[in-house]
């Protein structure tokens, strides 16, 4: 699916999903198309997913609130249809990109989004806009988290929420790099699922001797880094179980609780807690590095980093899209397709879903 | 006070305070004088303090339990009266030292203690055994913590429990290095005391707008590191108040609670939590570095790093010593003087207290 650029044909107004207060209704409104700063680009959005973090965001529980009113949406794909005045951005016009929303202003659930050039990843011809729409929040995060393990020279790692889409990607990447990983899940059927995917170590945190098992296993395989999506008590359990001089990297807060750390682990055992945010990670990369990583990740979008898409909705049907996704969160991503009202809806959707 | 070495005259047995279970009674028992490993030294203990961390240790709440039965006591001073077979330890015989207890075996509340050479600091002639007895847990820790601020290139810092002996030392050192410090205390009279000591920034954590004040002040003076003796909620408050990319160093747990960290601070604001333990810090130093630091710290034992001593007791009066200390913890250190029964008690004590 390629949309030709139409320079000079960017309209003055657009449709966007607007939220006037956190937890309040999501309404489709006509808004001005945003103006661009020197190094900004304007992306005509083609597809943009509903992520769990988006659902947290619209409830005001994501941990990072933008000023309201605001357009939600963390990631998506589309075509660059206008660029800021920086001369070196001219060749970007017309390129298809996966793009992340700015940290402090309107996001991807709109016909157009203004964002900074460094939040855009050129899409290869082999990657459709639908596949590219979900490239950042899960695949790129999985890549960047596994990079923390590799660059830190850890022999093995632990991850929580291992049955999530992101967790499964991390599990596959760790296998690709031949790095042992202890997967932590909450239910027995998730243990089965991950073992079927070839994971050698899967622990159920609901098991009565979970902490003992985790302690023994992490010492045995020398798992000195944990990737934690849960926070709260889990962070403390991880830290406590791991060997001397280990670290927990908190990248999510599914428990919605403060991360705990026993002082004895911090003081006497030299263990540490830090966070990870993809946005910071991207800013630390060189331009060349980010292009290489973008290329590498796209090559794996059909395999290790594959995302399943279950449905697409026009912006106007945001409430239906959310209901659908909430009912079947493990069935694949639900996308918003901001172009869907402007074209033959059925044909567009078929094309988009290819 | 100089004790001459008496090689060959080390007895086979000694008196020591022995604890058979955490929280159990402390009894003076006759025990074998410990055997030495190749790089160990045997210190004939002259003076050894009761520190708050010792009181935690004997209750089993220090966070690091040694196998029982055990001799408590974290630090002290004395004379090296025997050395292991490493040839380069020979010249150490007869030297007066401040010494720390081994991590996993008997401590300083005894007539003799076996410890590793690298836990000993030669005492200068200007430093008495009484002054040297309290050189490690407070003065050296204060030095090492302020070093975290200096080597991390932080423009300013925060500390909790600022009215403690250690806190006051940190405050004086920070003033010496012209580094702004926000002192956090719990009571108004502590605010007054620290301001009288020239501290420009003192906050009372019991004040209703404490968090707002801390947030404004830490951003204003760019305090990007906090030295935290409290843990629990306080760690989360510190982390939350401080600027982007700050870190909290937990070195104590007066709250006896797990350190908290809001996931949003870890994830989106790049803040970190780690611990500090003097024992690790000492092991990371070079021999030359530790000698230089030991010399530097001793030069300040009469000024910035001065410890007040209020009383000395023989080992047999450990219970009285503890009662005395608990009743007047802010009145100065209470020491055990393991030689007190062997000599003219009054003369020894007068000499020791000089």
Give a topology summary.
2 copies of one chain form a homodimer.
Chain A: E1 13-19, E2 26-32, E3 40-49, H1 52-58, E4 75-83, E5 96-100, E6 112-116, E7 120-122, H2 129-133, H3 136-151, E8 156-159, H4 165-176, E9 181-185, H5 188-196, E10 201-204, H6 210-220, E11 223-228, H7 233-241, E12 247-250, E13 259-261, H8 263-268, E14 272-275, H9 278-284, H10 287-299, E15 309-313, H11 318-327, E16 333-336, H12 345-352
Parallel strand pairs in A: 8-9, 8-11, 9-10, 11-12, 12-14, 15-16
Antiparallel strand pairs in A: 1-2, 3-4, 3-6, 3-16, 4-5, 5-7
> Residue ranges of chain A: pLDDT <50 for 5 or more in a row?
1-5, 342-350
Order of helices and strands of chain A, N to C? EEEHEEEEHHEHEHEHEHEEHEHHEHEH
* Biggest sheet overview of chain A: 7 strands, mixed
Overall morphology of chain A? globular
- By DSSP (H or I, 4+ residues per run), the number of helices of chain A equals 12
């Amino acid at each position: 699916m390629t949309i030709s650029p139409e320079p000079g044909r960017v309209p003055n107004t657009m449709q966007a999903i607007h939220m006037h207060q956190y937890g309040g209704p999501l309404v489709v409104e006509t808004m001005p198309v945003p103006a661009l700063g020197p190094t900004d680009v304007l992306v005509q959005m083609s597809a943009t997913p509903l992520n769990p973090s988006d659902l947290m965001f619209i409830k005001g529980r994501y941990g990072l609130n933008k000023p309201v009113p605001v357009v939600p949406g963390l990631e998506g794909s589309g075509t660059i249809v206008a660029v800021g005045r920086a001369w070196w951005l001219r060749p970007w016009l017309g390129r298809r990109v996966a793009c992340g929303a700015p940290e402090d202003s309107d996001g991807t659930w709109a016909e157009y989004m203004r964002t900074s050039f460094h939040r855009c990843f050129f899409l290869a011809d082999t990657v459709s806009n639908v596949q590219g729409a979900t490239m950042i929040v899960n695949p790129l995060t999985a890549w960047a988290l596994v990079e923390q393990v590799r660059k830190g020279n850890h022999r093995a790692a632990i991850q929580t929420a291992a049955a999530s889409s992101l967790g499964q990607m991390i599990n596959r990447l760790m296998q690709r790099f031949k790095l042992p990983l202890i997967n932590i899940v909450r239910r027995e059927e998730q243990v089965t699922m991950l073992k079927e995917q070839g994971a050698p170590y899967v622990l159920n945190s609901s098991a009565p001797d979970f902490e003992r098992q985790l302690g023994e296993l992490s010492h045995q395989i020398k798992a000195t880094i944990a990737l934690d999506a849960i926070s709260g008590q889990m962070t403390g359990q991880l830290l406590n179980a791991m060997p001397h001089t280990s670290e927990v990297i908190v990248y999510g807060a599914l428990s919605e609780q403060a991360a705990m750390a026993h002082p004895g682990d911090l003081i006497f055992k030299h263990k540490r807690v830090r966070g990870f945010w993809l946005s910071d990670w991207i800013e630390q990369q060189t331009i060349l590095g980010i292009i290489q990583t973008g290329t590498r990740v796209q090559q794996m979008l059909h395999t290790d980093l594959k995302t399943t898409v279950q449905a697409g909705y026009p912006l106007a049907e945001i409430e239906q899209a959310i209901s659908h996704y909430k009912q079947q969160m493990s069935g694949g991503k639900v996308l918003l397709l901001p172009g869907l009202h402007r074209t033959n809806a059925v044909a567009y959707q078929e094309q988009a879903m290819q």
